[in-house]
Design brief:
Layout (H helix, E strand, L loop, with lengths): L3 E6 L5 H13 L3 E6 L1 H10 L8 H12 L6 E4 L17 E7 L1 H8 L6 H11 L3 E6 L6 H12 L3 E2 L13 H15 L17
Parallel strand pairs: 1-2, 1-4, 2-3, 4-5, 5-6
Helix pairs in contact: 1-7, 4-6
Length: 204
C-alpha cells in the first residue's frame, strides 16, 4: 500500500525545508496531500524565488513539472476544500507534517481552532491519534509560543524546531536544510541518505 502523508506549508520562514521535504517524499513514491497557506506563498516567493500558483490544479501541475513526480502522487487542496480527504477522520492520512509551521498555526491547532483546512487536518490527525509533526521556525519564542507548543506536545504532536545540528559539518545552506529533512523522514519511517548518522562515517 502506498504511504500517504499530509504536508502543509505555512507562513513561517523556512520555505526551503518544506520544498526539500516535498521533493524527498515524492521521490520515495509517497502520496502527498499538499496544503499551502496564502502566507506560505509569500514566503516561498520571498525566500526561495518560487511563485506557487494560487489555484490547486495549477499549483499541482507546477510542482509536478518542477519535481518530475508521477501525477497520482500529488494532490493539492485549497484552504476551504472541506470535502478533501484531509478534513475527515474517515479518510485523512494518519501522518501529517507542517513544515514550516508558523506560531499562529501552532496556536490555532493547540486551541482546537479549525478555520482553514490546515488547522482542520491537524485537528483530525490529533483526534484520530495519528502522527503530527510540527516544524516551527521562530526566534525568540515568547511564553505564549512555548505554552502552545507544550500543549501540542501533550496532545501527541512531535515538535521539531527548525534547528539543524552541525556535527555533519555542513558546507552550505542546503546541508542545513537536509539535516532537518532527514530527521523528519526518520520520524515518518522513511529512508534517508541526506545526512550521515551519528557515529557513522558514511551516509546511511
Amino acid at each position: 500500500m502506498t504511504q500517504e502523508v499530509t504536508l502543509a506549508f505555512t507562513g513561517a520562514s523556512g520555505a526551503g525545508y518544506g520544498w526539500r521535504l516535498l521533493e524527498n517524499l515524492l521521490a520515495q513514491q509517497v502520496k502527498v496531500h499538499l496544503l499551502i497557506s496564502s502566507a506560505a506563498r509569500v514566503v516561498f516567493a520571498t525566500e526561495y524565488d518560487l511563485k506557487l500558483p494560487g489555484g490547486p490544479e495549477a499549483c499541482r501541475d507546477f510542482i509536478l513539472e518542477k519535481t518530475g513526480a508521477r501525477k497520482e502522487l500529488l494532490a493539492v487542496y485549497g484552504k476551504d476544500d472541506w470535502f478533501s480527504p484531509c478534513a475527515s477522520g474517515s479518510a485523512a492520512p494518519k501522518q501529517m507534517v507542517i513544515c514550516p509551521c508558523s506560531t499562529g498555526t501552532a496556536a490555532a491547532i493547540a486551541h482546537g481552532m479549525s478555520d482553514n483546512l490546515i488547522e482542520r487536518a491537524a485537528d483530525v490527525v490529533l483526534k484520530e491519534r495519528g502522527q503530527l509533526l510540527i516544524v516551527p521556525r521562530e526566534t525568540p519564542l515568547s511564553t505564549i509560543h512555548l505554552e502552545n507548543l507544550l500543549a501540542l506536545s501533550k496532545a501527541g504532536a512531535v515538535v521539531m524546531p527548525a534547528a539543524p545540528g552541525f556535527y555533519h559539518q555542513p558546507q552550505s545552506v542546503d546541508d542545513l536544510i537536509d539535516f532537518m529533512v532527514a530527521r523528519i523522514l526518520d520520524h515518518l519511517g522513511l529512508k534517508q541518505q541526506l545526512v550521515s548518522r551519528w557515529g557513522y562515517g558514511e551516509k546511511q
